[in-house]
Amino acid sequence: MTLEALHKLTPAHISLCGWSMTDKRAELLGAKVINVREKIVGDHVVANEKLKQGVTLLEEEPFIRQLEESYKPTHCTYCFTLLKSNMMKCPNKLCKWSHNYCSLTCQRQHWWAEHKWLCAFPELKNTHRDVLFAFQGYIASRSRGKGTLPGLVSNIEFHTSKQVEEYRSRIKNGLLSKIFNLTDNVVESMVTIMGQIRCNTFAVTQTKTEQAYGSVVEGSYHIAVGRAIYLYASKFNHSCDPNALVLFGTNGCATHLKVNLVRQAEKGEELNISYGPLATKMVTELRRKKLYNDYFFECNCNACQKCDDATNMYQCIQCRGQKLYYRQDKCPSCNFIPNWHEISLDEEKAIKLVKEGLVEMDIEKFKQAMRITLKYFDKDSIQMSKLWDNMGRMYVTMGRLSEASKCIKASLTNVQKIFGKISVESAAEMLKLATIYWNRHV
């Protein structure tokens, strides 16, 4: 460490203990955390009373947060809000970090949370972002008298020895360790925090919409602008068919998290959110593999245990009545042996036809895709629902709202049969239908 760097250190750097920040503690509404030592279940959240659909279970601000590098020029470093023309910088004119803020409040909060320790050391800009995030976590934890993120699991025992050693090497061999003279105990605490971050991080998302034909919303998608740790929200277990939904930015602050109940819950019923893949978006085998790789647990939720998983059931092309799993050897009713290679090629062809149909506004390509889909799937399947949905998008783009509403109605009918009338999927289709109806009458 250079003499210049040594002169920049303060007593706070030496103790690595954060000062108390503005900390609005969250509170679960109508629910409670059940603390258990059993690793398979872990801490989880249950309803304290009978809860109605739509109630808010939790509102929470992040314990620590980190904006993605690519969004730093356009978003506030602290609250992740899209910046306007009157953005602020760090008041230190010698600061070389590329931080922008939407307000003086955000600038000050970020100063106490992290930037106070790093402002004077621009040479740390190239430090691995995971190490900087873990360092922020250590400072925040010390401000509460803890050495690691309070109350969160790390599952470090399920990481491979190579992964753990990689975490340790990034911290110990980096410039951060040399400047702040991190002790072995601090390094090990940060290794644990990196494990906690891996298992408990929320991707903070914002919605982007595409528009066509005036004000009709054609489609929307989510982008992850950063990541954050929420101490209470992390207590919710995962389900591929959750009864609660995580929302961001509902109060104007992009990092503000809210958990809403999407269907009625009985007293004592566990409340779940989705950590990523939903049963409607990914087949069971791939979902479970992704969850294990990302979070180190094998999902055994109801959606994963269902034998009649709507997303990966085919129908026998010979007897037309029996449902088949992907790569099932033969039909148990008629002993027909499916050609799964041919089926996969046909599915890829149908997907290609839909994409071309959307680009070229060609209804004939949609009809070809529909014939292929009906060959292998039931008319009430989720695959047909997706096809109707894409046809609706095409008609909206063409300005043919009457045909678009018929397609979305067909998609909604299928979705309600598969997932129920009170489900996230049904709500999404009803919103599309309502948007089309509204635009037909304005």
TrEMBL record:
Residues 31-276 form the SET domain. This is SET domain-containing protein. Keywords: Methyltransferase, S-adenosyl-L-methionine, Transferase. GO terms for cellular component: cytoplasm; nucleus. It comes from Rhizopus microsporus var. microsporus. GO terms for molecular function: histone deacetylase binding; methyltransferase activity. GO terms for biological process: methylation.
